[in-house]
Amino acid sequence: MLDKIYTGYPRFKLKDELGIPKEKIITFPWIQAPYMKRGVLGLDKFEWLNKEWSHLGAQTFDKYVANKIHNKGVLIALSSNGLNAGKKMQALGGKYICDRGSSHIIYQNEILNEEYKRWGFQWEGIDKRIIDKEQQEYEQADYITIPSDFVMNSFIEKGVKKSKLVKIPYGARLDRFKKIGEPEKNKFRVLWVGGVSLRKGFMYALNAFEAFKHRNKEFVVIGAMTSEIKSILGTRQVKNVIFKGNVPNAQLLEYYSYSDVFLLTSLEEGLAMVQGEAMACGCPIIATPNTGSQDLISNGKEGFIVPIRDERAILDCFQKLMDNPGLRAEMSEIAINKVQFLGGWDTYGTNFKALIDKFA
């Protein structure tokens, strides 16, 4: 259905995007690509530069795409990237869909500010220019696509009309993720896949794991660690935790399959796709509602849904799984059936097509 795909990523980064005709992909990497490499260049430590660079990238890319639009159609743009292009499309008689993958930007900014303070850090905050632009996009767009009830509720809480919101949950790569084995007996392995950060609520997960009484427990942590978490961990001894850093996506199914439970305790995001990956591999989930988990699992069936910042609730879930070995096997089977029923990315595409067909 797509006429063109505009991206700020350099073309070599798109080599794994199978199934998309290369002639449809138009890259504008001149700002985004250097921004992605700023750490290698030693420039990521300058917060002011990061903000200016990020803002310049979004604005320049948006205006570039706007200049390329000449015919009526439907523009789908990631939030903070589509205001100018969206207006241009609407001026030609077309429609503009703003796609937002996380909670409402004001909600996001507020809860992260609150969380950083809880741990004694200063939250720099989202660039006010980005916040202003996104709010204009929410107002300008014909529809806002969001991935979960959690995100929808954050928008409604901030005054956006429900009639403008269209929930289209993300899918999982069912062709890539499948169960290939069982966890080791006499060991309790907890798995974390995602950013190791305050936003993801990592410290609540770690504290619950450390309080869990098991003679052979293991916490495998996959993902990049932020400076705040490094600072906190530098003041304490951590045992039975294996920090793997980044792991190739193709290797994740082994970790999912051989872990007793997958843990994700985020304070905010949209719909963490790693949850669907874990389910496809038969790994039960412990997650907060703020991960979008309620759109994937029912509490007590494919896993557990726990309140944010609730270490006790996480610990209780660990205990239930340990005390009842059959529960894990039961949840594993239900999780596989559920994620297959949800349909993966094909269902996402079908639902998005239904929205676009309204404009036909």
Automatic annotation (TrEMBL):
Signal sequence bounds: none
Domain annotation Glycosyl transferase family: ranges: 178-336
Pfam annotation, one family: Glycos_transf_1
Entries under InterPro entries matching the protein: Glyco_trans_1, Glycosyltransferase_grp1
PANTHER family reported in the protein's UniProt record: SULFOQUINOVOSYL TRANSFERASE SQD2
Protein name: Glycosyltransferase family 4 protein
Organism for this UniProt entry: Maribacter arenosus
